[in-house]
Amino acid sequence: MVLGGVEIELGHAFDGRKALIGKSLGFPLISIDITEMTLAELTPEWAQQVLTATTRSHEKGRRQTYIYLHDLLYPLYAQLPAFLDSEQRHQFLVFADDDTLHKLVRWMNLLAEKLAYPKNAVTVALVNGKNEQSRKMLERAGQVVGLDWRDFNSERCLRLTVPRPKGPADLQAHRFHMTMARILLSRTDALVGYKYCNGVDNEHPEDDVWIARRWAADFKSYTDHRVLPKRLAEPINRLIAVVSDLHRNHMETG
Q: Which of 32, 37, 39 is nearest to 63 (CA)?
């Protein structure tokens, strides 16, 4: 399993193709610029510091690194306050063709088993729009992922409910989420939506990001909190098509 990659920049432009590879395979890529550094400064201590520094911990409020991370991995690294989700479970909604959905059911169940999750900790279910009630459930899931959900599958989707990672040291959650991301990004042509907690209502389908509203008793008013994107992934071939068009236009005008 690739947990991450590091790109060392020494006076050259960053190669965006590497970021695309990292995103398509579901692992973070960290870019570090060492152009103005001397060889003596490149020590293990420096590497530890630069790879873990944040804008808050850095003395000048900035980092030497830039992190390229696919949206599908945001839920793995995001540390959400407990008031947003008391159950500490989140949900992924996958739209793809029937064959892919059935494969994903087998793969996700097998992954949960291999990682020794307790029974029913990971819930893998197909939402079939066979009757009025299930049809409404399917349409609500479609509203989360975007207007084009019917282009992928208008009859059913996969609903995957998983325990939220407990923190950076939760190895089980890291293995599950990174393997899931790699499968969805490199093995399927799928549209993937996200609900930051089980049962949250999508009251504003037009918004691309989940907004959680909380009552602030001290101020006797509601406060809004931006959480995470609703739509986490779409087929990589769409991205490749955009890049190919940009490259072709560049060659034609160059």
A: 32
